[in-house]
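Technical annex, item 7. During the second reporting period the consortium partners agreed on a shared format for inverse folding records so that results from different sites could be compared directly. Each record opens with the tokenized structure and is followed by the designed sequence. A conforming record, contributed by the partner at site C, is shown below for reference.
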């Protein structure tokens, strides 16, 4: 099934829905919060999903556990997305988009099903040549 997301700009409505449901702090806000929680936030900062919206860089809140650590399933999926050359913005949009591979559920609501999520992510990336995914 061709991806309805990759190759097109992600709509402002998607970002606003993420902001409303999960929060969408700036990269600097996240850095400050992590610095309050740990001595060296840099290792965690390097794992973060960062989305680029015309006015800045943001980190979708769904990637964090309540204690501020990165959710391990989201981190694993994100590493896989980078291997598949899926850009941060497209990965983020995929996380909140209902998926036929998940029975109509959104990936963000299916985090206990890590194996199935990885297969769904591969299906999401499959329709496009590797050179076009990260554009």
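Designed sequence (site C submission):
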């Amino acid at each position: 099934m061709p991806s309805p997301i990759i190759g097109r700009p992600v709509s402002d409505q998607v970002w606003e829905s993420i902001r409303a449901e999960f929060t969408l702090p700036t990269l600097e806000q996240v850095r400050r919060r992590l610095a309050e929680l740990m001595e060296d936030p840099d290792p965690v900062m390097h794992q973060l999903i960062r989305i680029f919206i015309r006015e800045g860089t943001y980190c979708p809140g769904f990637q964090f556990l309540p204690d501020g650590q990165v959710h391990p399933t989201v981190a694993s999926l994100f590493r896989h997305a980078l291997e598949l050359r899926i850009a941060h913005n497209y990965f983020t949009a995929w996380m909140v988009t209902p998926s036929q591979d998940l029975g109509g559920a959104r990936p963000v609501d299916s985090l206990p099903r890590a194996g199935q999520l990885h297969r769904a992510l591969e299906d999401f990336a499959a329709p496009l040549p590797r050179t076009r995914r990260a554009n």
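Residues 64 and 70 are 5 Å apart (CA to CA). Strands lie at 51-53, 56-58. All partners now use this format for quarterly exchanges.
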